[in-house]
Design a protein that fits this description.
7-stranded mixed beta sheet; 33% helix; globular; disordered C terminus
Length: 205
C-alpha cells in the first residue's frame, strides 16, 4: 500500500473509538476544495513496485505494538480503494483485533463489495459530493454516478455502521443541492453536512 501519511492517535475520526489513521496516496477525483490535495497524485508504477512498503511495514509494526491501547484503524486518503492490497492490510489489522473504518468516495463499488463481503470493515464513511447533475463539478472530473449509487446501496444493505457526508462549499453548492442529496437517501439514513474550512494543512507525513 502506498501511504501518504499516518496519524497515530485520534479521538474524532472514528466516533467512540481510540484510533489511528492511514492516509493512502492517490485519488481518482480532483475535488477543487480538497484539503488533502497532496494525496491526489498517483503513480501506478510506484504502487506496483512496492515503493513505500517499508513505511507501511513500520505502520503495521506500530499498530501491532499499540493493539492494546488503540481500538480502531481508519483508512482514508486519497482514495483507499485504488490500492490493490487494501483487503490484505484490512485483514492483517483485523487479526490484530482492530475495528476498521474505511473512508471512500464510492467510485469503486466492486472493491467495496469485496471488502464488505469479507467482513473487513466495521464502519464506512462515504462522501456524496453533489446532486448527480453537479457531480463532475465537485469531483473535478467526469464521474459515473451509477457507481456512486451502487456503493450507496451496498453500504445501506450491509448492516454495518456508516455515515454519508457532504462538504458544503459556498460557490459550488447551494442549500437546494443539499435538499436534493437528502432526497437521494432514505429518510433515516445517517447523513451529515460538513462546513468547508480552507486549510493548507494535510496529513502528518
Amino acid at each position: 500500500m502506498v501511504t501518504g501519511g499516518f496519524i497515530p492517535f485520534t479521538l474524532t475520526d472514528y466516533p467512540g473509538e481510540i484510533a489511528a489513521i492511514i492516509f493512502t496516496q492517490g485519488c481518482n477525483f480532483s475535488c477543487p476544495f480538497c484539503h488533502n490535495s497532496k494525496l491526489i497524485p498517483f503513480n501506478p508504477e510506484t504502487a506496483a513496485s512496492g515503493q513505500n512498503m517499508d513505511g507501511m511495514e513500520q505502520v503495521l509494526d506500530f499498530l501491532y505494538s499499540r493493539r492494546h491501547r488503540l481500538s480502531a484503524l481508519v483508512i482514508s486518503g486519497g482514495e483507499p480503494t485504488l490500492q490493490a492490497d487494501l483487503p490484505d492490510v484490512l485483514e492483517e489489522t483485523r487479526r490484530m483485533g482492530y475495528k476498521l473504518k474505511l473512508d471512500t468516495n464510492g467510485s469503486r463499488p466492486a472493491v467495496l463489495r469485496n471488502i464488505l463481503e469479507q467482513d473487513l470493515a466495521d464502519m464506512v464513511a462515504m462522501d456524496i459530493k453533489a446532486p448527480w447533475a453537479k457531480y463532475h463539478l465537485l469531483a473535478g472530473r467526469a464521474v459515473n454516478t451509477a457507481d456512486i449509487r451502487e456503493s450507496m446501496e451496498l453500504i445501506l444493505e450491509s448492516g454495518i455502521r456508516y455515515i454519508f457526508r457532504t462538504t458544503f462549499v459556498p460557490g459550488l453548492l447551494e442549500q437546494g443541492d443539499l435538499d436534493m442529496i437528502r432526497k437521494i437517501l432514505p429518510p433515516d439514513a445517517e447523513y451529515v453536512v460538513q462546513e468547508y474550512r480552507h486549510t493548507a494543512a494535510g496529513p502528518a507525513l
